Each structure stands twice: as C-alpha cells, then as structure tokens.
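DM from R.C. (forwarded with permission)

"hey, sorry to bug you on a friday — could you get me a structure for this? deadline for the figure draft is monday and I only need the backbone to look sensible"
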Amino acid sequence: MVEDSGVDELLRQWAAERSDDAEMQEVNRIKNAWLAEAPPSASPGIPSQRANGGPRGVVRVESASPAYVAAMRRRAPEVPEVLLEAAASYWQLVGDLAEAEQWWDAGISPLDQRALDYRVAGLLPADLGRRLGPMTVLQHLRRGSAAAWCVARLQRQRRDGVA
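My reply, with the result:
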C-alpha cells in the first residue's frame, strides 16, 4: 500500500472509536435506546421526489459494490471490512473502480476522504505527480496546501505553457 499517514491516522481513529471504554459504552447505550424508539423499516432508503404530485416513494439504498470492496481488500487486507465498505460506498457514488485505483496508484488512498475533496477541487490522479516548484502536487497536499491552490497553480502553468 502507498505510504500515507492519513490512512494510518484514520485506522487509529477507527480503532479508538470502537474501544470499550466507559464513555463509549454509555454512547452506545444511548444510541441503542434511541434506535429502539424509531419505527422499524424494512430497508434503508432515500425519499424520492414526487412525480406529478403523486405519492412519494422510497428509493432503496444499495450497499457497497462487492467489486469495490474486493479491490480495496486486495490493496489493504489489514483494514476492517466495515471501513472498506464505507470507503467503497463513497467511491461508487462519484466514480468508477478504475478511477479509485488510479488515485491509489498516484499516492492517495480511496480510504482517505481527502481524495474525494481533491477530486471535487478539480485535481486528477495524473496531476499528483506534476511539479509545482521544487515539490510535486502530492507533496504540497500532504504539507497542507489547499487543493484549490494546487489547481490554480496547475492552470497557470498550462496557460503559461510551462507544463
């Protein structure tokens, strides 16, 4: 797996959230009591818009694609299944599996939510290896530079004919 401290921190946070300390037990007790009061539903869904003023329906929410989960498991076998499914569900909403793997190959794990932020800002996986001064775009991002700043610099390079 590509070395990414963000993913390691995410895994540490995930493990800490699932520890059995007294505070987490109390949170889980309150959550379970609250969920027990909610009306049972057959399956999760998203309310759909009314068509011609008719009754509303519910669009069924599918779980993560098994192909996404399998691809992520091959690259990160030590990551818990729940975390893989959550990351896969994010990626299947915005792009195909090939794109997620391109981001991973470029140095950003799809398990890292920042990958989606970079994508929304206008970065492509191929942009991460491009140079902005003495560092690559990926190095700038890892040091805390804003994705929008990197996109603006790349556009200026293209406009000036540098890249």
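R.C.: lifesaver. Residues 20 and 26 are 10 Å apart (CA to CA).
me: no worries. The first strand starts at residue 45 and ends at 47.
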